[in-house]
Design a protein that fits this description.
Blueprint: E1 33-35, E2 41-44, E3 47-50, E4 60-67, E5 70-76, E6 88-96, E7 104-110, E8 117-127, E9 132-141, E10 149-156, E11 159-167, E12 172-178, E13 184-188, H1 189-198, E14 206-219, E15 223-233
Parallel strand pairs: 9-12
Antiparallel strand pairs: 1-4, 2-3, 3-6, 4-5, 5-15, 6-14, 7-13, 7-15, 8-9, 8-14, 10-11, 11-12
Length: 234
């Protein structure tokens, strides 16, 4: 996720899973990969794990991975506005939205709560390269909110979502915010993408990159974000 500035929180709801403060949370055994490079990336088969520290005023961030399915981040970003980073795992699909197949994903994460903290756990699905961006927020914490204006509520993949639509000045953004926050969730990505087209919200595009990770605005003092398990079906 790039080139975003967050608005005031909408539909904000607390989520309870605490993470350690101040020190990097290491995996149970030595990680297969680790970096402190802002743009560090690691390939595991068809997937790429990205540190992706890109925002103005960002602090320190490190990332480790045992696989594309199991990885974690320690981030110490100041308590200021604007997204600082989007550590994530990505997969290149490259299929027309009406012929993308039954694409879905399951995730289990451990995330921090508390003060001086603002982030969302989100999928970032790109259409026609980077012309159209579908964000699917499964949970969030602190003063964060979607780009654009509220459109409607929708029921997709056995879950209720609030849809927001707008632009960040570079590309169209469609944000689905979960009405019920969860750290262990299944998401029907095809249903979200095809609903936008069927309802005239998005043109028929090619679905390219599918990413999942943590969009972090602030994490002062150092916080841990862990993807315990990630499975993508394409």
């Amino acid at each position: 996720m790039q080139r975003r500035s967050l608005l005031a929180a909408a539909l904000a709801a607390p989520l309870a899973t605490a993470g350690a403060v101040g020190t990097l949370q290491s995996p149970a055994h030595a990680a297969a990969w680790y970096t402190e490079d802002d743009w560090g990336k690691w390939t595991d088969g068809a997937y790429t794990v990205n540190n992706h520290v890109w925002g103005s005023g960002a602090g320190a961030q490190s990332i480790w991975a045992n696989s594309y399915s199991n990885w974690g981040v320690w981030a110490d970003h100041p308590n200021t506005g604007g997204v600082k980073s989007y550590p994530h795992v990505s997969y290149q699909l490259g299929r027309d939205v009406w012929n993308m197949g039954n694409v879905s994903a399951n995730t289990n994460v451990t995330v921090p709560t508390g003060s001086n903290l603002a982030y969302c756990t989100t999928y970032d699905v790109w259409g026609n390269d980077h012309d159209h961006e579908i964000m699917i927020w499964t949970q969030w914490h602190g003063a964060v909110g979607p780009i654009g204006s509220y459109v409607t509520d929708v029921h997709l993949g056995s879950q209720n979502w609030a849809l927001y639509q707008g632009t960040n000045g570079y590309n169209a953004v469609y944000s689905f915010l979960a009405r019920n926050h969860t750290t262990n969730t299944w998401v029907d990505i095809t249903a979200h993408a095809q609903w936008l087209v069927a309802n005239g919200r998005m043109p028929r595009v090619r679905i390219d990159e599918i990413a999942f990770g943590f969009e972090i605005t602030s994490s002062a003092g150092g916080r841990n974000f862990t993807c315990n398990n990630y499975s993508l079906w394409t």
